[in-house]
Write a structure and sequence with these properties.
Blueprint lengths: L4 E2 L4 E4 L2 E3 L3 H7 L8 H113 L1
Antiparallel strand pairs: 1-2, 2-3
Keywords: Coiled coil
Length: 151
């Protein structure tokens, strides 16, 4: 023990921790029957202990409240993650559907163009046939009128 004694500080030093005697230990060493500070200190200690216990209880309530709030926030985060994942899946499905609609639209445009070309050719043919019909009708009328004249 002597090698731990630090005479300059009047204390013992262990691993850079200073240790010294308490007032009660000094009173025993000095053989004082009654410590003049003990009653005053015990009431102050009791008040400090009571205040400490009060603060400790308050802090424990605060910790419990924060733990409950933290738990609720974790639940809320999980709910939001689930909602986000659901929305992302729905968005992906919508993107895929939109892409499919674009492809289908391109195909239909190609078909429409082909059908328009067919309709244009059919209109040209119809006009030709109409002209031919008018010519044949005119020839028929001419022929019928000549026949009438011959009779």
């Amino acid at each position: 023990m002597v090698r731990f004694k630090d005479p300059a500080y009047q204390c013992f030093t262990f691993n850079q921790e200073d240790m010294t005697l308490t007032i009660e230990e000094y009173s025993v060493l000095l053989r004082l029957d009654k410590n003049p500070f003990s009653e005053e200190m015990s009431s102050e200690l009791e008040m400090a202990r009571h205040e400490f216990e009060h603060e400790k209880a308050k802090l424990l309530r605060d910790i419990n409240s924060l733990q409950e709030e933290n738990y609720q926030l974790k639940i809320d985060v999980q709910i939001e993650k689930s909602r986000t994942e659901k929305v992302q899946k729905e968005a992906e499905i919508t993107r895929k559907d939109l892409k499919d609609f674009h492809l289908e639209n391109r195909k239909l445009r190609g078909k429409v163009k082909k059908e328009e070309k067919k309709a244009a050719r059919a209109m040209i043919e119809l006009r030709k046939k109409s002209v031919e019909f008018k010519i044949v009708s005119a020839e028929l009328m001419t022929s019928q009128s000549k026949r009438q004249e011959l009779k």
